[in-house]
Amino acid sequence: MKKVILLVALIFATSCQTNTKAQNEKAIAHQIPEKEVFSNEQLQDFETAYFASGCFWCVEAIFESVKGVKEVVSGYSGGKEANPTYEDVGYGRTTHAEAVEVYYDPQQISFLALVQVFFGSHDPTSLNRQGPDRGPQYRSIAFYKNENEKKVIEQYLELLESSNVYDRPIVTEVTKFDTFWKAEEYHQDFERKNPNNSYVRAVSIPRLNRFKENFREYLKEEAH
Length: 224
What we know:
The protein is α+β, with helices and mostly antiparallel strands. The chain has a single domain (about 45-224), classed as Peptide methionine sulphoxide reductase MsrA (Peptide Methionine Sulfoxide Reductase, Chain A, 2-Layer Sandwich), CATH 3.30.1060. It has helices spanning about 1-15, 20-25, 40-45, 55-65, 85-90, 110-120, 145-160, 190-195, 200-215; strands at about 45-55, 70-75, 95-105, 130, 135, 140-145, 175, 180. Helix 4 (about 55-65) packs across helix 9. The two termini are about 30 Å apart.
């Protein structure tokens, strides 16, 4: 029982919004895994998809592990304010949510598969909260860029609901995509570069491992 209490205390003592830039830059990784790098010009050859499901450090790492995904960018979307900052979004001073921009090859993975990854890697019944992170900036959003993507999301939602996958109603927002604002550079690839960060160890890595356990068929070879 004592171990359980200590674990809960550790998780709730850390959160995506409590890490300052200075703290983040002090987090040192003993070995940063290699990652294929694409230029902005090369990225234009791929499709994009946008999702929000809690702290973007966690969400970025999850989609980075999926085959067919070429790049994932952490940022902000779903709100009205221009040029949002981490401090403003993280402390709920905007209408944005922490979100990710996913570049993917549709010849290797479909938009439907990405939607499945999205729903399968977080709790879509949790309103304005994921894990220890609370507030509308951590709400669940599936963005669509066109009517076909909207149809894919809505049909999958209907399937989840009709199959009674969850005990509670799904609260995910299905929202027309408008603008994505890239987060500050120190947030990019945060989990990969900072495996010893307290939040990463207590929240991000366990969340990633749960996803890997349930979606083995979607993983890149190096992610197994």
